[in-house]
């Protein structure tokens, strides 16, 4: 059976995705089989301690801008638990702004197991990276590097040695990577967001004027990277 999703129910279970608007009908079942799809975590809002409200506004703004340009491609914001604050905020704001629910979804699950555990086919996934583009460090970065195997580390090194905040780098995943084999992921896009955590490099010391600009640039760079793969 092809993976589908139901929009009407806002109470998602783990491994389920949904459009962000209520439309009260089962008529708009969305097949996730063929459309190029980017799954992305909320950049900077966990280890980097960026404000959720501000981040949610930026995600919705950038998603609105790019869904208009993306043809049949889709964007999926992912987080680990249905208690995720950022997912609820983004869902509410996206619904207010009438973002196209065929092109933007939220999904509860592990970004490294979207196909095997969630039945969601995402050919591209984004990573909330560190500036050295190194494995480990916890969060989604550690999960993606672990799941992708040493193939991702070497493929990343061929593309870039480091990232500055607000930038992204597209890395084609070798076909031997477990993430390619089991999940069908062909590209990982590393993104470096703004950092508000004093324990991490390049801390912005609560300068949200700079921070918001960098987070906007980070999402623009991520979505442009995805668009360059889709084209
Ligand atoms: N699947 C889906 N979402 C996840 C997963 C996962 N496996 N793991 C975490 N998240 P974070 P940041 C969500 O801290 O704030 C790293 O150590 C998480 O709930 O990974 O940008 C890097 O090396 C949150 O919503 O990234 C950097 O140094 C989102 O992913 C630093 O942390 C991002 O959380 C980057 O910090």
Annotation keywords:
7 helices; Leucine Aminopeptidase, subunit E, domain 1; 231 residues; binds ligand AR6; two-stranded antiparallel ribbon; alpha/beta
Could you walk me through the main structural features you see in this protein, from its secondary elements to its overall organization?
- The chain has 231 residues and is of the alpha/beta class.
- It has a single domain (32-230), classed as Leucine Aminopeptidase, subunit E, domain 1.
- It contains 7 helices and 9 strands, in the order E-E-E-E-H-E-H-E-H-E-H-H-E-H-E-H.
- It has helices at residues 52-67, 85-96, 114-118, 139-148, 150-159, 178-183, 208-230, and strands at 4-5, 17-19, 30-31, 37-41, 74-79, 104-108, 124-128, 168-172, 187-191.
- The longest helix has 23 residues, at 208-230.
- It is globular.
- The two termini are 28 Å apart.
- Ligand AR6 binds next to strand 5 and helix 4.
| CATH topology label | Leucine Aminopeptidase, subunit E, domain 1
How many H/I helices? 7
- Rg over CA atoms, rounded to whole Å, is 16 Å
User: Describe the biggest sheet?
Assistant: 7 strands, mixed
Number of domains: 1
Summarize the structure.
The protein has 231 residues and is an alpha/beta fold. It has seven helices and nine strands. The longest helix is centred in the last third of the chain and has 23 residues, at 208-230.
